[in-house]
Amino acid sequence: MSDGTALMPSTTRQLPLATRGAGVWIWDADGKDYLDGSSGPVAVNLGECHPDVVAALAEQASTLSFAHRLQFRNPPVERLARDVVSLLGKGFDRAMFVSSGSEANELALKLAFMYWDAQGLPEKTRFVTTTNSYHGSTLASIQISGQPRYSAAFRPLVTENERVRAPYLHRIRIDESIADPAPIVLQRLREDFAGLDHEHTAAILIETVGGASAAALVPPPGYFELLRELCDEYRMLWIADEVMSGFGRTGRWFGFQRWGADPDLVVFAKGVSGGYAPLGGVGLSRRVSQSLLEAKGAISAGHTYSNNPLGAAVGVATLEVMHRDGLVLAADERGDMLGDGLRRIKERSASIVDVRGVGLMWGVEFGDAETGRPLPSSAGFTPRFVESCAAEGLLVYPARGGIDGVSGDAVLVSPPLIISEAEVVELLNRFERALRHLETEI
Ligand code: PMP
Hints:
Helix content: 25-40%
Keywords: Aminotransferase, Pyridoxal phosphate, Transferase
Order of helices and strands: EEEHHHEHEHHEHHEHEEEHHHEEHEEEH
Family: Belongs to the class-III pyridoxal-phosphate-dependent aminotransferase family.
Structural class: alpha/beta
Low-confidence stretches: none
Shape: globular
Organism: Leucobacter weissii
Number of domains: 2
CATH topology of the largest domain: Aspartate Aminotransferase, domain 2
CATH superfamily of the largest domain: Type I PLP-dependent aspartate aminotransferase-like (Major domain)
CATH architecture of the largest domain: 3-Layer(aba) Sandwich
Bound molecules: 4'-deoxy-4'-aminopyridoxal-5'-phosphate
Distance between the termini: 35 Å
GO molecular function: pyridoxal phosphate binding; transaminase activity
CATH class of the largest domain: Alpha Beta
Strand order of the largest sheet: 4-10-9-8-7-5-6
Radius of gyration: 21 Å
Mean pLDDT: 95
Protein name: Aminotransferase class III-fold pyridoxal phosphate-dependent enzyme
C-alpha cells in the first residue's frame, strides 16, 4: 500500500479527495472548488446534499430501514411505483425496482425473454443494440453495449449479439460529405433491421439519447416512429434505455416523450434518486405487464435490494422536489442557454467539430475544426481536456465513443438540473479557459 490507500484505484489518474458538496459545487481536501458540469456520471440531478432529500432519507432510515420484497410491501416503494408509472404516461402500468442501471437493463432483457415465451415464441432469445452505445458493466449489459472493447476481456463469458448503426449525424455529414444526413440515418435503420435474425430476436435495446459512448447523440425527426414500425413489423420489443436521459435530463420527464414515442419497456436509474441511493428500475407497458401477469402471476426482480424502502424514499423525495421546483422545464431553459454558449465557444475554437444535445444533456466532440475529422487517438485529447477542466475547477464527463473503428474524442456537459443562470455562465467560462490552455499546449 505504498500509495497510502487500501482501496483498489478506479483510474490511473491521481484523484483529489472530495470532502464536501453543496448544490453544483464540490470541494476537495485542499479547499479547491469544482463546478460539477457533469452531475457526476450524469446522475446528481439535484446537486449535492439537497436538504429535502437528505431529510427524507434520514426519516425513512429511522422509520423502516429494510423490508424484504418477499415478506412485505412497503409505503415508499408503492408510492414510487405509482409516481413513475404516472410520469411514464399512457400505456404504462407497472414498475419494478433494482439497484443500478446495469441491473435494470438486465431485468429488461429478462422481461423481454419471458414476454415472448408467454406469447408462445420461446425461440425469441436474442437482442439487438446500436453501435456506440453503453448499457452497463455487468456481464450481459457490458456485452450488449456497442463498444466491443468493453467486453473483449470477458469473451468466454458473454455471447454475441447483433447491432444496428447508431444515428451519428455528424460522422455521416463529415465522412460522406452529406449536408442533411437525417434521411440516410432512417434509410440505414430500415436496411439494418431488414438484415436481422427476426425469428430469434426478442428486442432492441436503445438509448433514447446516446450518452456515455456517444456524447449526446440525438436522433433525427422520424427516427422513433420508424423504430416503432419496424419493431411491430418484425415482432420485437423496444426497450428504451433512459438510465441517463430519464427524469428530466432532456427537458422532459423521459427522453422518449420529446418525440411522442412509444416504447414497450423503459429502463431508468441515476436521476430517479439524483444519485443519492443505488436505485434503478424498469417501467412496463400494459401490453407487456398484462401478458407476464397472465402467464406467471408475479415477477420478482430477485435481488436483496429490490424494492428497498430507503432507496424508494429517496426516489419519492427527488421526484417531489423536481415537481415542486419545476426542474424539468428549468432543464429545458438552462439547456438552451448552455447549448448556445457551447456553440459560441465552438465558433472560437480550433478543436471542436460538433456540439449537440437536448435539455441539459450536451455533447462536445473534438477534432480538426477545419475538416471536422477526428484527432489521432495518440493525441489523447479527451483525457487531457478532462484534466485541463479539473485544473480550472470544472468537472466534465469523458464520452469517448468512436464508431466502426474511428475514435471519437468527446465529453458530456450535463450539470445538475438545479444549476442557476450565473452558474451556467461560470461553467462556460471555465470550459473555455480549459480549452484555451489545452489548445495552446498542443
Ligand atoms: N445505461 C446507460 C444509458 C448509462 O448511461 C449507464 C451508466 N452510465 C448504464 C446503463 C449503467 O448504469 P449503472 O452504472 O448504474 O449500472
